[in-house]
Amino acid sequence: xxxxxxxxxxxxxARQVLGIPGAARARWLKAWRSGHYLMATSVSAAVTLxxxxxxxLPSLAQSWTEQHRRRAGALLGRSVEPRPRAARRNLAWxxxxxxxxxxxGALALVCLGCLFITPVITLLWWAYPTAPWLPVVSVxxxxxxxxxxxxxVNLVVLAALAAIVLPPLARAHARCCLAVLAxxxxxxxxxxxxxxxxxxxxxxxxxxxxxRRIERDLHDGTQARLVAIAMRLAVAGESFSDQPxxxxxxxxxAHAETEDAMTELRSVIRTIYPPVLADQGxxxxxxxxxxxxxxPTRIDIGPLGEIPAAxxxxxxFAVTEALANVARHSRATHASVRVTRNxxxxxxxxxxxxxxxxxxxxxxxxxxxxxxxxxxxGTMKISSPPGGPTNxxxxxxxx
Length: 399
Known about the structure:
Blueprint: H1 3-9, H2 11-18, H3 20-50, H4 52-55, H5 58-76, H6 87-123, H7 144-181, H8 185-239, H9 244-272, H10 275-291, E1 297-301, H11 309-330, E2 335-342, E3 345-352, H12 365-375, E4 379-383, E5 390-397
């Protein structure tokens, strides 16, 4: 196998072996993103300084700071959740932004500006041949033999300087931004108490609704059949001596009603805790569930280890409800279920290629999924733009 075959069939490994161009490109792109962040920070600091009276208003300060929190989180690769309004912390950040943003942005502007001006200066050496213009190697240029080498030296030095200095500086500023705007322990505790209060309310409401549903299913279904069975058996007992054939027919009808009542009772029990979970575990139960789905469904289950029964039930019901919605509403041609565990966090992802626009706020079964997950301190996220696809992610702690 020759070198060309390696490049064609294993480009990733070839780049890994050669290494330097890809690494240099990645480092330069990182430096460029960091420089862009710092220059935008400098502009933001200037706007903050100019519009300080307006930004002292709590609503404007909150939106302005939240925008910068998201930008800092994106640079650091962190997810930034919305936080409650904190006027003092917002004002402290405005001062910090002006003090740190202007000099760091100016440094990035000088560094990147010199980097882009160097080729222009190199090409225009003939206009001012004796002027020491190049920023790093500042000597008079007398011809192309000195202009090109010195220009290359400047480019290399400035690019290395940008790659070395700008990323740490940008990350330091982003960490400072997040640290200044981070909620205090008291605010975090208050937010946690509020979340737990809301979750407790949702759990109580869901529990009450579940009890009413079970009572309605038993009253309207199983109980009605049992009453009919009792009446038929009573009539059969009274007519057994006079009309044995009619009594036998009533007994047969009562037997059939008993079978139906047992079927309905089993279906009610399955909505409380599916027996298939106890028999086959979560992996087997989900595999069985996907084979019966209304659309072709691919399932991928990683090593799960030991999972609490409550978590298994929530995941099972979430996948059940999601696949039922796929079959009823999405017009999808295929779906997928992926369940993985990362330490103490269990993640279930259900996706389909349907028409999208799934929304838990409409009070559908998706809201029930969200409440079940919240009851165990978990979360449910939905991505379902118009036209699809739909991705539902349920994350549950399972330590």
